[in-house]
Amino acid sequence: MPTTGPIGVFDSGYGGLTVLRALVDRLPAYDYLYLGDNARAPYGNRSFSTIHQYTLQAVKWFFEQGCPLVILACNTASAKALRTIQQQDLPSLAPENRVLGVIRPTAEVMGHHTQTGHVGVLATPGTVQSDSYVLEMAKFFPAVTVHQQACPLWVPLIEQGEHVGPGADYFIQKDLQALLAQSPQTDLVLLACTHYPLLEEKLRHYLPAGMKVLTQGTIVVDSLADYLNRHPEMESRLGRGGSVHFFTTDEPADFDQKGAAFYERSVRSTHLPPDELIH
Ligand code: DGL
After folding, report:
1. Which residues of the chain have pLDDT under 70?
2. Could you tell me the pTM of the whole model?
3. Which residue, 147, 200, 220, 275, has most beta carbons within 10 Å?
4. What is the number of the ligand 1 atom nearest to the C-alpha of 77?
5. 22 near 34, Cβ under 8 Å?
6. Tell me, what's the pLDDT at 1?
7. Is 74 annotated in the active site?
8. How does pLDDT run across 238-248, given as a tens digit for each residue?
9. First to last CA, the chain
10. Is 104-215 assigned to CATH 3.40.50.1860?
11. Is 67 a catalytic residue?
12. Domain residue extents for the chain
């Protein structure tokens, strides 16, 4: 029997759990391994080289655990580390393995959801600085204009559980206004950070009537299902025991408690000290 392994799902912290939730709902047969690098989160304000270094350490760990396929369920890591990992690291590390991100699958479909051809992207400073959405959309929907707004405090607010409090309203309104001021024609807002679905309800409150909101969970799942259909050689390497295991580089009790809001069911994690990622 050939060896099979779980699908690795990575995020700087809790946000990737919104993607994992969609994966487990739609593709429950596979085994999944989740790693949240909570001890070093948020990534959003960090440099290219730091994010590459941290993400590569995580990818190596997933490979050591036997994952043939790793999904960077984090826009910031996808924007600032994925290309280098795919082009520079993977060929010598494990050429038969794959690392996929969340930006390309989102850009592949986003243009279908706008009537006006003006879309708004709300993301971390790192994702915005990288211009990844602008560059990817230019490939798939060159006629669509992408307006971007960095929301530096949204991830820290969510990670601290403050997204439900009144403090969050101030920053949501501020950043949303700055985005919408860029073009009165914007008719679609993308939550381009896997943490942001937790703010969706509050956000909708401040959106003009008729404005569409796009989140990434189902987009990533549709894209993965399509990828596995087209790549049976990868699909056959994936374990099908229906298991889900969680690891965090920070405090497991905290991860389990806060993570449940993202995963929308209970979470039981194991501690992976960041030192064990560095070798
Ligand atoms: N969930 C990550 C993303 O999608 C958050 C990044 C961060 O840690 O700031 O970008």
Report:
1. 1-2, 279
2. 0.96
3. 220
4. 10
5. no
6. 53
7. yes
8. 999 999 999 99
9. 31
10. yes
11. no
12. 7-101+218-277, 104-215
